[in-house]
């Protein structure tokens, strides 16, 4: 029975979700900021542990490192799920198989890390890694929309929300329908976590990249 649990779709999906959560919950923004002598990043700017808030410490290099690591912790569990559970009975590409489970687990882990009392980031960079891990065309669409909107608006939250929606649309339009449900669910979660940003966007008070607010 133990073998069936760990090798069948239910067991594989559970293990993939746990792997995603474990890797996704590593708070690189908090860790690197402290190692760099910047203090508790949760006490700076927006209080978020992501790269945009780390940039408010004045260190572009530190922010870039956090961005890459947050992206990596989304990519790695999806990459591993493809390989560890690449067997017919596990159906890694099924709508709610191991790969989508790892993807969702990574983003949920970043947003709700157990180590920080379930108060983490907003999942944009981690979902970029997830999208790339699922399929490079989805990751490319994510990156192009994210960078394009950011360059045009200089508003990180707007770029991130547009990118997560773009990932779900790209999966539908580029031939990856099995991943539309999980990417759509992640998009809804990320947008919900940005609800305060949406209010500021509507009021015209959302800070732009490089500002101290």
Blueprint (SSEs and pairs):
Elements: H1 2-7, H2 9-24, H3 28-35, H4 51-54, H5 60-84, H6 98-111, H7 124-134, H8 136-153, H9 156-173, H10 180-193, H11 195-203
Helix pairs in contact: 2-5, 2-6, 3-5, 5-6, 5-7, 6-7, 6-10, 7-8, 7-9, 8-9, 9-10
Mean pLDDT: 87
Query: What is the molecular shape?
Result: globular
Order of helices and strands: HHHHHHHHHHH
Gyration radius, rounded: 17 Å
- Which class best fits the helix and strand makeup? mainly alpha
Search tags:
disordered N terminus; 67% helix; 213 residues; 11 helices; mainly alpha
Structure description:
With 213 residues, the chain is mainly α. The chain contains eleven helices and no strands. Helix 3 runs antiparallel to helix 5, helix 6 (98-111) runs antiparallel to helix 7 (124-134) and helix 6 runs parallel beside helix 10. Residues 1-8 have low confidence and may be disordered.
Short overview:
With 213 residues, the protein is mostly helical. The protein has helices at residues 2-7, 9-24, 28-35, 51-54, 60-84, 98-111, 124-134, 136-153, 156-173, 180-193, 195-203. Residues 1-8 have low confidence and may be disordered.
